[in-house]
Task: inverse folding
């Protein structure tokens, strides 16, 4: 079954970036190999993120990111850059349409507001959350205040040196 | 070596209680056996917590909590209840004195403000953080905003059904 997957790293206090958007704490995290990234990436068929996240990703590389997968960027105002597909569609209808169009799991990259919208509409089927061994004390939270209260089901954990990958699925109504 | 240990549960988004202090999400967490609690508890020699946490703990039981260990409650105003030892000492000097007095690890129970003060003074030597499989979306954070940015060293993880126990130690300066 196709599904929407959140795959992301956070500090132990639940931040995905410092207040100034910096990721130095994440880049210096001591992992192991590629921390399972290639295995994950090989299984996904398209990529969705918010525009702010996309702009941050662009800053981190000279090449267009994720060139071998269709990239969708959620934005109410931006019209596109000739590379990514910009859309102002609501995230839940977008995710359904990508399931049909590309026939495989969608990677929801972030950031917090996109994730919040996904959780509001129960659109995330799987969660891979890499917990980094540090407390930031400030920053941009993975789950912003007001995120829908959500029970998950733990299916697996994996340790990559100093990184703990927590793997959850959506809890089915019982 | 004696040490100060934080042993606590949090939601995946880093909350130790809901906004109204309720712990229903924690009490219904599906663990395994006692989730390692008795093993941990048998190794500690005294217990420290903030007064708000102490008052919440009192509400949860008809008996005085932790009767077989000396209990210390940090409060600037309270004078004691004939059971716990109330003190307005700063948490770092209190923890050092308990190490000497009781000669074994101190359990720092919480809450957030006490933990923040401990981290400000680098007083926590070990962290056991039980991650519960739910996102609350609001509540009282384990690491309040402004907690000192702190790198930790992961030493172990343990899975108890739906609870992941993350075990860290203080990262030594290199």
Result:
């Amino acid at each position: 079954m196709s599904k929407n997957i959140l795959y992301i790293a956070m500090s132990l206090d639940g931040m995905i970036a410092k207040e100034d958007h910096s990721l130095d704490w994440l880049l210096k995290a001591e992992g192991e190999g590629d921390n399972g990234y290639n295995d994950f990436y090989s299984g996904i068929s398209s990529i969705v993120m918010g525009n702010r996240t996309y702009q941050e990703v662009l800053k981190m590389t000279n090449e267009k990111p994720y060139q071998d997968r269709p990239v969708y960027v959620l934005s109410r105002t931006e019209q596109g850059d000739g590379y990514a597909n910009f859309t102002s569609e609501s995230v839940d209808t977008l995710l359904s349409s990508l399931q049909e169009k590309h026939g495989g799991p969608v990677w929801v990259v972030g950031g917090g507001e996109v994730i919040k919208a996904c959780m509001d509409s129960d659109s995330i089927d799987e969660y891979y959350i890499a917990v980094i061994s540090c407390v930031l004390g400030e920053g941009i939270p993975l789950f912003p205040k007001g995120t829908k209260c959500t029970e998950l089901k733990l299916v697996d954990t994996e340790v990559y040196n100093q990184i703990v990958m927590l793997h959850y699925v959506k809890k089915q109504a019982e």
